[in-house]
Here is the input.
Amino acid sequence: MAEIVGAFGTPHMPTAPGEVARGGPSSEVGQIFDAVRQHVDAVDPDVLVIFDTDHFQAFFFDNMPTFCVGAAPRTYGPAEDVWPGLPSYDVRVDEALGRHLHRTGLEQEFDLAVSQEFTIDHSIIVPLHFLSPAMQRPIVPVWINGIAPPFPRAKRCHALGKMVRAAIEAWPGNQRVAILASGVFSNDVGGPHIRDDQTTPPDLEWTRFVQQRIKQGEINDLMNAVTEERLRAAGNVAGELLNWIALLGAVDDRLPRMIELEPGLRRGNAYAAWRWD
Amino acid sequence: MSVYGLNKACHLVQMDAGFRERLQADPAGALADLPLTDEERRAFMEGDVATLYRLGANTFLMWRLQRFRVFGLTADEYIARIRTVLDDS
Here is the structure.
């Protein structure tokens, strides 16, 4: 059967590839992404199942799924989500695994949507750029709506992660699968507290709280604190934490090998790795 | 008021190159087919993001207006205008 070999969490700032390219080896953001990439390379997964927040690219309010699995032969991005310095990539999708996750989800009474044709925005392109730059690993996106309230509950996202793990472990074959959670703990885009440099001061109290709960495996305490009100206070994309909650459902009792906040603390970003070895 | 219409206009700015081009050539015409009130149309035409914010537009989507420089908005202008909502009591 397929096995999970690792799990990783990173942010996905669309400006990061350009920033790191300009900064060179001394770039702190480049170094911390690299630390996560070294864990990815150490476990060498064949495929990446990615818990992600679509940023109104695959979906919009006309048709907004709560949970959706991507099962297409291939995808590309960032498509219309153009940012200076952000490269475009064609990315393979493990369509068969995607269909398996969708079917298993329905059998386990998760009312999942499926998309058989989609593009991927910076929230998948940026982690892949840093963690799997050769783009040799196919992906399976699992989108969780954490951007257009109302959101699914944290406990439901956690259960989704557990279901995905069981589905992977029931998948025939020898595939080595890694889980990726893409997103911030705190950020606000385009809101009234925006600074001149176009970033918004993160909610550091929340960022540190989340980091400590994950570091110590205090996941029930974390989930109890994840209310829509608390997420909104942490910024309009703080719902991306739900992707991490799903990852935590998949890793179960395992504690992270690393979970570090971004140096400088100008952004509410965390970088983490779990290993099964 | 149509929050859906506000968000759809911001969404189309990124997703629909033809819509973007029409916005440059004929902004009123480009907005004509969207479910917007007169106040909402005026706010868009003037790049009045503070009013759009108060009307309920999604800020993540609104931020795209300056990325694509529609309604004459630069990043600096967007930032200056959106900050004025902090003065609301």
In short: Chain B is about 65% helix and 0% strand. The first helix of chain B runs from residue 3 to 15. Residues 66 and 78 of chain B are 7 Å apart (CA to CA).
